[in-house]
Amino acid sequence: MADYSYIGSGRIYMEDLGANPATGLIDIGNVSELTLTPAEDVKELLDYTSPGGGTYNEVRRISSVEMSMTIREFSPENIARILRGNASSTVAGTITGEVHTANPGAFIPTQYPPVVVSAVTNSAGSTTYVQGTDYDVVPGGIVVTPGGGITAGQIIHIDYSHLALDTVEALVNAGKEYRIFFAGLNEARSGKEVTLDLYRVRLGVAQSVPLIGEDFAGYQVGGKLLKDTTKTGIGVSQYFRAMLVA
Q1: Which region, left, alpha or beta, applies to residue 125 given φ > 0 means left and ψ of -120 to 50 means alpha?
Q2: Which of 167, 202, 204, 220 has its CA 20 to 30 A from that of 131?
C-alpha cells in the first residue's frame, strides 16, 4: 500500500466572486493553517424489539462544512477581507493648515501619520509654536506640552508631510463569497502536489485581531462552504475538489 502520510504547506489564492470587474485568484500570502470541518446530522432509530435497547438503524447526512484558516500577512487587502472593509491607497504628500482643537498634555492624531511637522500655528497664523517647547511629534500626531504656549481649547493649524499610505475602512460591507484555492505540497511525500478548490465560501469576520503582543500575529477567520450549482455531472462535487499527485 502506498504511503499517504501528510504534512502540508503551500499557497492560498482567493477570488472575490462578487467583484466587478473580476479579479481572478489572488495570492493572500503566508497562511499557517487551513482546515475543513464537516458536521453531520445524525438520525437514529432506537431498537424497540428487545429490553436491552440499542440502535436499530441510523442515517448520517452532511449538514455543513466549515472552513478555517490563520492568516499571517497583515496586508491592507487581507485586513479588508477579514473585517469586511475597503482598502485604498494614498500617495505621499503635504498637508497645510489641518485644524485641531488642542489641550495641554493631550495627544492630537493628525489625518495621516506625520513624517515631518513643518509648522504649528494659532488659528490666525500670527503665532508659530516651537517643537520641543509647545508640542512634541509622536507616531500618529503630536502631543501638546503642558505649560507651553498652547492653551486649553485653543484652535491650532498643523502643517506636515506624510509618506504613502494604505487605508482600510473596516466593517462597511456585507459578508462576501470567495473561491479559495490551495496549491499545496506534501512534505511527507517529497513535496508532491496537493490541490484543493473550494468553489464557494461565505467568509466570516476575523475571530480576533491581535494588535499588541510578543509573537508574530495570526488572524483566524472562518467560513462555510456553499453549493455551486454550475458544477454538474454524475459524481461531480458541487462543493470542492481535491487532487493529489500519485
Answers
A1: left
A2: 167
CA-based nearest residue to 89, from 28, 165, 172: 165
User: What is the per-residue pLDDT across 168-196, written as a single tens digit (0 to 9) for each?
Assistant: 999 999 999 999 999 999 999 999 999 99
Q: Could you tell me the pTM of the whole model?
A: 0.86
Letter for the amino acid at 84? R
Q: Label residue 53 by pLDDT band (50, 70, 90).
A: confident
Residue pair 165/112 in contact (Cβ under 8 Å)? The answer is: yes
Residue 58, C-alpha cell as written in the block? 441510523
Q: pLDDT tens-digit profile of 108-124?
A: 999 999 999 999 999 99
Domain ranges of the chain: 8-44+55-87+171-244, 92-163
Q: How many C-beta atoms lie closer than 10 Å to residue 130's C-beta?
A: 11
Residue 2 has pLDDT above 80, yes or no: no
Q: Which CATH architecture has domain 8-44+55-87+171-244?
A: Roll (2.30)
- As a three-state string, the secondary structure of the chain is CCCCCCCEEEEEEEEECCCCCCCCCEECCCEEEEEEEEEEEEEEEECCCCCCCCEEEEEEEEEEEEEEEEECCCCHHHHHHHCCCEEEEECCEEEEEEEEEECCCCEEECCCCCCEEEEEEECCCCCECCECCCEEEECCEEEECCCCCCCCCEEEEEEEEECCEEEEECCCCCCCEEEEEEEEEEHHHCCEEEEEEEEEEEEEEECCCCCCCCCCCCEEEEEEECCCCCCCCCCCCCCEEEEECC
